[in-house]
Amino acid sequence: MRRSRAALRIDPDRLHDAARRDDRTIAEEAEADPASAPVQQPENWRGAELIEPETTVQVTLRVHRDTLRAFQADGPGAEQRMARVLDEQARQQTD
Q: 73-79 — which CB contacts under 8 Å span 24+ positions?
């Protein structure tokens, strides 16, 4: 479990525990920590494909009042639910 310096300063016992560790223990903890993985060299990225995350775009959309009320009746998140319905419809049309 990683702790920041600030957290170690707040808890003197943890600071003393950290000071008692030997180099081998520290190296083993660093190897087990996924955040300490080695940096990949440029040659390892050859042929890699950049995949852009799907993003949303803000639009203004006019819908019938009853349609909006129907989505709002299910509680907060009406806009997200409408977007999901539109996404599903668009996928069906492209299949």
A: none
Task: Indicate the pTM of the whole model.
Answer: 0.45
Strand, coil or helix: 13 = helix
Model confidence over 36-85: pLDDT tens digits?
Answer: 777 778 888 888 888 888 888 899 999 999 999 999 999 999 999 999 99
Report the b/e string of 49-64 with b at 16+ CB within 10 A: eeeeeeeeeeeeeeee
Nearest to 61, CA basis, from 78, 36, 40, 42: 78
Span 5-34, mean pLDDT?
Answer: 72
User: Whole-angstrom Cα distance, residue 26 to residue 28?
Assistant: 5
